[in-house]
Predict the structure.
Amino acid sequence: MKARVLQSYARLYLFRVLYRGGPSQLVAARQLATRCRRSHAFRHWRRVVIQRLKLRRRCLRTQQRIERCVASWARSRAIQVVNTEGKYAMAKEFHQSKLLASSFRTWLGWYQSSGPT
């Protein structure tokens, strides 16, 4: 409450000392302050929007780079497996992947049920 009283007295003093031109000068000062506040808010909003846009683009580029890397690795791995292990190698590889995934799922279920201590 004391801060509000002090603030109102300070405002009254400023109006009497600085704005002796009367209400028209007060109106002009108020309009200028409003314009400054709005332009600052707009600049801040625009900066935030641009930063979000840049971040979204960067995330998209990273995601595309990861997908290209995964595709190229999968392609090279498939070629390598077929060359080294023969005709049914991809079926074997797929079966091993399924076994690995199911064992990981089993372990994850056990780990979550036991809970980390």
Q: What stands out?
A: The radius of gyration is 34 Å. Residues 18-107 form one domain.
